[in-house]
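So, can you check?
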Amino acid sequence: MADKRSRPEGGRSGNAKSARHSSRSNSSRRQRIAAASQTIDSNRVFVPVLVFAVLALIVFVRLFYLQVIVAPEYTEQAENARLVSIDVEARRGTIYDRNGTVLAISVDATTVYCNPSEVNDVALAARTVSEVMGGKLSDYLDILSQTSLSFAYLEQKADVETASKLQELVNERGITGIYFLDDTRREYPNGQVGGQIVGACEVRIDEDTGAEYYAGISGLEAYYDDILSGTPGKYVAERGKDGIPIPGGVHEDTPAVDGQDIVISLDITLQGYVEERMATGVEALGGTGGSCIVMDAGTGEIYAASSLPYFNPADRSVVEEGATQLKSVTDLFEPGSIFKTVSTLALLETGTMGPDDTMFCPAYITADGYTISDAHDRGDQTMTLREILDSSSNVGISLSVEQMGFDKLYDYIVKYGLHKDTGIDYPGEGESDTDALGYLVPYEDWTKVTGYNVSFGQGISVTPMQMIRFYGAINNDGVACTPHFLISKPQSGETPEYATEQIVENTEVLPTMIDMLKTVVSDGTGTAAAIDGFNVAGKTSTAEIYDEENGGYREGVYNLCFTGFLADSSSQLVCFVGADEVPGARVVTPIFKDIMATAIDRFKITPEG
């Protein structure tokens, strides 16, 4: 019995177990399928949400970028599209001569500009501008057709009346996009006369702002540019579609500060005569150029100065080489016999010789293999120092200076300031780091022939301005004044002061020196400089010209000059006249005479007593 109960019936019991297992498996599969289905359904919902979230994030980031990051930039760009910005040029100061005559002035002008994007009829606008302003139609068409631009110049610094006529036509024909701005233009009423001294300007562009402005490029326009130029202003405002400024839309309105006027020492009437007489005189002599200076020895004020060729700042269509420079300031030359006055004054100051002391002067002397003789043939002769100067003897002055000592000559050249800048207020002098000017061999390098040559103005280079300063000191109690042009600034009331220098220590010899220079004119080489009723004192020169290419001195051509003044008169004017590369032995003394005679009449100069 026990065995029966414990044994299952056939295979029924195993099949039931399998059925139950199968049932559980199916249930699990259905659960997994249901779970998977739920996952798929969840993913189907999540993906759109995720995509939406990404898109929303992109939009948010873009909005943040536009509204926060670049909004100020876009706002500025939009604002700039509505803005017109114009640099307001300062009116440049006027230059007057000593009598109030205008030499350079900024006059009213009108600048015409356009906004090509606003022009309603390009062809009509270009034709209208061309009719009035006279420019090429094609040029105006090119400018007005550039619709990508909001600003372009059509005509700068135009005549006011011409610009007004154009504005009337623009309004009559209903042309839009063309505008007019008050401006100034530089003019030179005297043209060539005084042009080298006054100088010229050019329009330049400020690299930082793009603003245009006048800048001096030569003469006093350049030297006193900081005083004359002033400070530019600026105008920035919003405007509507019609170009009219929007009320309350001015962003900046900084007025320009005009430059200061200056008064210079030039007398434009005398200056005109000097230029005319120098041009005709140098041409008659066959020279290649020439220079002249008329200066008041008592003040240093320059009344006239010129050098050939001349310069016209009002018409610069043709400018000859060197025309913009005042060569009497900038160019060196070997002075020749006018330098004998330097040697003579040193002889008098040291007491080596007096005017009536004698020196045996052979026909020629030799030194270091060189032969020195006078310009005119003569035999051996004994001469006084006065006669040596009157006849301009090279041999006589050489031997006299040798007796004094060449070292003393060197010291007095330095003492008289003939080795340094004069301090003149004009471009071209003193532009180096030192105040040295000219060519003076250091004394330790002098040979005997160097001493001889320098004594009569060869082997040394100076400027005419240095020489006139020295001669002026002789006529001013030994005091050398700084040559200058500027004498006042009217707006500020400022009168500049200039340095003076006592270059002659032994002033007791000056009357003797002046008397000797008077006999050069009355009895010596300068007779053609004499003026009736006046005691002219001065010295002539016929200087050889150094050959830069081949060495030595050129044959047959000379630099001629005369420097002198009206001794014993009511005036201290001193005058230098020079002519360059003149063929043959000629003189410039007649030119000096005519210039000083004109000065006598103009300034009512009288002999003392």
